[in-house]
Amino acid sequence: MNTTTKYAATALAAALGVTVLAGCGSEDGSGASKGSGSKTVTLVSHDSFNVSDDVLKAFTKETGYKVKTLKSGDAGAALNQEILTKGSPRGDVFFGVDNTLLSRALDNGLFTAYEAKGLDRVAPDTQTDEKHRVTPVDTGDICVNYDKKFFADKKLAPPKTFADLLKPAYKNLLVTENAGSSSPGLGFLLGTIAAEGEDGYEAYWKKLKANGVKVVDGWEQAYNEEFSGSAGGKKAKADRPLVVSYASSPPVEVLYADPQPKEAPTGVATGTCFRQTEYAGLLTGAKNEAGGKALLDFMISKTFQEDMPLNMFVNPVVKDAELPELFTKHGEKVDTPPTVTPEKIAANREQWIQSWQSLVLK
Predict the structure, then answer these.
(1) What angle do CA 221, 227, 231 make, to 5 degrees?
(2) Cβ distance 192 to 162 under 8 Å?
(3) What one-character DSSP code corresponds to residue 226?
(4) 3-class secondary structure for 166-189?
(5) By the 8 A CB rule, do 187 and 141 touch?
(6) Residues forming a β-bridge with 266
(7) Cross-strand bridge partners of residue 145
(8) DSSP string, 2-57
(9) Closest alpha carbon to 22 in 47, 70, 48, 58
(10) Is the pTM of this model over 0.85?
(11) Is the pLDDT of residue 24 over 50?
């Protein structure tokens, strides 16, 4: 789901910076979109965006447009850059704003309304903007992951719920990310608010702090340096067997292992999840509106949707898209994770973060 960055693990599969895909380039060879007649459409995204070359070639064959991708850091950083340049955007389509940050994008008027073709096939619960300023593209679940070997060796059952994390048996075992600087960290905070209520989350975090939760700046540090179950954590001799990550993290551990294990070394506490939805939108002032609309249509096509799971480790939003076997075998399907509406997040996000920081970081 970036938002961190929706999913920092895709850095293993995606190049950083500006990437020109599927033979991208404009008629003048500069790679820039040149007005409505340009055959290049520019997609601005967070660093975790990744798509197969064959899929982009299929888009070009179908529409005549080539895609240039401009990666701009994590989701929050990418969104901030678009807010600073609103009205004169750096591209035509923006991908990667999620439900935790959506209100900021909409309040700043970043997107022009467009109802993408095929939207009737997209899950209704992801379509939160009735004006169609954004199009749902994927979902992901932020959840506590656990190191299977640690719990097996200790003959200790891993936690299943938010309430379990408060038990003495799990003291000093959990690492999470800063809710003020990390998308997974914010998602985990929102998950506790959804589970414990606006009147109960502060008391919950006081207890979680007393039970030894460790807070670090971002996902990369938490997962690859502090979490004992990840490949990076093993190399770093990490000592925290619980980490806030994603329900799709176990397939990543299998996919990039050499040789691939028969079973993922990590598991998911499915009662600790928060549902993220990521959106794409046509940027207001886009130089290539026609190309941008064509790209939005394509992003909810079955071809694009079925390519996402093993490239961005997210779930499709299109009803008939199928998941790859590795994803279904090693990932966790979370049927009804708690979430918070974008409207409620918009009204309370900053206050919730400040409250959390005063409780946990001081």
Answers:
(1) 90
(2) yes
(3) I
(4) HCHHHCCCEEEECCCCCHHHHHHH
(5) no
(6) 147
(7) 243, 268
(8) -BTBT-GGGGGTS--SEEE-SS---TTSS----STT-SEEEEEE-TT----HHHHH
(9) 58
(10) no
(11) no
